[in-house]
Structure formats: C-alpha cells, structure tokens
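W.,

You were right to be curious about this one. When I first looked at the sequence I had no strong expectations either way, so I just let the prediction run and decided to look at it fresh. Below is the sequence, 338 residues in total, followed by the output.
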Amino acid sequence: MSEFLGRLLAMLAVWRLIRRHPTGEHEPPEVEEIREQLEDVSERTVPRNPRAEQLVAGLLGLAAVCGFGFTAVYVLEGHNNQLLGVAMGGLFGFMAVAAIVAGKFVVPQETTSEEREPLLEEGQPEEIVALVESGGEGVSRRGLLLGATGVAAAGMTTALATTVASLGPRLTDIHRTPWHRGVPFVDEQGTPYHADEIEVGSFYTALPAGHSWEQLGAPLLVVRLPAHYIHLPPSRRHWAPEGILAYSKICPHAACAISLYRYPTFAPTSPAEPAFTCPCHYSTFLPGEGGKLLFGPAGRPLPQLPVMIDSKGFLRAGGEFDEDVGPSWFDVHYPRQV
C-alpha cells in the first residue's frame, strides 16, 4: 500500500510540474528525475505455472459439474430448493475461484507506470489487441484451459436455461376443470353436500367427487342467498335453485384462493350486499350478480358454475363454468355464450 501511495504522489507531482512547464519548454531536472523513477517501477513477470493451470481447469470442471447437476436436480427432484441452491452456488463459486487463481498464478503479472496520454490515438486499437494477446504468454496448456472454460460455460448456460421452466405453470389446459353436468359437490372429507345443509350467511368450499382435488379449477365457493339479493343475467336464471350459487374459489387475478365472505347482518353498519373477497389483493366479487367484480385488480368476474339439486336433495354441477377459471393471462378465453 505504501508503494502504491508513493507512486500516486510521484505522478501527482509530475502532473503539477507539467502544468507549470507546458510541453515544448525545457523541463526542470526534478521532472526528469521523477520520470526515471516511474520507469524504474515498471515490471512484468510470466508465471509459467502448469500446476496452477491444472488447478484452474479442475475448478472449471467442477463448475461444469455443478451446472449440469442443477439441471439434473431440477428434473429428478423437482423443487428441492436446497439442492438447487447448492448446485447453482457451486457453479458460480468454482468459476469465481478459477478466475482468481488464473489471475494470480496463470496470466502474466505486470506493473507499469506511465504518463496520461489522450484517450485514443491512431494506432492504439492495434496496441490494445496486442496487449490482450500477450495476456496468454507463458500459458502452456491453452487448449486445456479453453476447453475447460467452454465446458463450464456450457454448464452455466444449461443451468440458467433450466430456470426458464419455472417462470410459470404450463399454460396449456390450465383452465380445464373437472366440473361438468352431474358431478356431485363434496366436502374435504368426501361427504356429499345436501341442499338443506347450505345456510344463509355462511359460505362453503365444495370439491368435485371422483376427480382430482389438486386441479386449479376444482374448488368451489357455495353460498345460499335470499331472493332479493339474486340478480343473475337472464341466461342464468336457473343456475341458483333454492338460492344456492357456486363460483370458482380461484381469483381470476393471480390465482389466489378466495377465503373471505361478507354478509349483511345489521343494515346501518353492514355492506349493502354479500360479497367474496380475495385476501391477496382484495378483489371483491358479488355472488348475487353473477360474480360481478366490485373492486380490485382482477379485471373480470368470478367464474360461475350452474347448480342443480338431484332427486335426493344433493348438490350437483348443472354444467360447466361460464368462463375460464384461473389467472387472467394471455390465453384466457372470455365469457362464453351461455
């Protein structure tokens, strides 16, 4: 550090003297003395260290293993974040160590001091190219290092490309649901819902019997409303037998599960009408008006499912949803003609 500060002070002194004595005038002896001192500190050494080259190649090979390992873990283990983190961290860690070792023990080490010249003069680009090429002087295994670098770069490219698969779920068939005419409504224990069990003022989560409950379009919100709260479009006048309505539980904004339901209980202080609210971004929907969006960023109504009551009083789907279930991405199909 002291040597560096000394050089810096010497260069500053030269600059001040040059400003006092412009180019073309005779330079005082002290300026020439300082110039000679600056020339003396310039040195260049070529390490010629085959062991260091082997170490760099080995580190780059380990980086490549980590890069390809990231892809392997992603494919075989799915979302094991610990292993994925170790693989990605090892990739960049080994590449960083390889760069440090190469910079210290493989490429030529050069210390120079020179006066500041204009930023770019004619012929300087060629000098820069020659300087870059001279950086490989003393390296005895260029092919090994270039090959190891290429393999490490391929591993890094593979690892980074693998992460693209996690940018979002596959959009094909994301809006397909297990609901169609005749599918029974069941609770989380698989018990069918009877129409008499649905009480005014409460909401229920229903699932499709005999189908996968893990599908995005599987869960339903089920409520019973008095007649004065129900104002459905004419095409849906038969979708709410005995005042029972069903809607997708998945908010069409960002696919959060709707879990809040407000119902007027005391006129002076309660909202004017019942509503579902998504806890993520507070999109609010009116079940009595066909899932109409009242507030929030959802951008479209909550998809409604027609309800029918079978001969034994159990709830079943009367058909399919009126529009696609799920987040409003670019492949959402807008309301169907029902």
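Here's what jumped out at me. The first helix runs from residue 2 to 20. And, maybe more interesting for your project: Residues 330-338 have pLDDT under 50 and may be disordered.

Coffee later to discuss?

I.
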